[in-house]
User: Fold Thioredoxin from Halosegnis rubeus.
Amino acid sequence: MATETSAETGASAANEPLHISGKSELDEVIAEHEVVLTDFYADWCGPCQMLEPIVKKLAADTGATVAKVDVDANQQLAAAYGVRGVPTLVLFADGEQVEEIVGLQGEDQLRTLIETYTD
Assistant:
């Protein structure tokens, strides 16, 4: 079974979402990248599936790094960030959590939020 080691992509923003497999990996991504949009999701979640193409586009088109955390596989990590519903998006800037959004959001709203911290 192959595991993704996406956090080892370097300090520039990744063009694809990074799949996170634990707290230390997320901490490393947050430390290495100026702005990180973290998508806490579940495979069975309809709104999460609707959000998937939006976060992929944001990863490709913005200065933010997009991280994805499967809450079923990473229950302790989700709990550590107070995630009670999915999708939950947590935005980190300069290593600090600056925003948390619960529920499906539109691309324009998320892009504007990211640009607030990348300019």
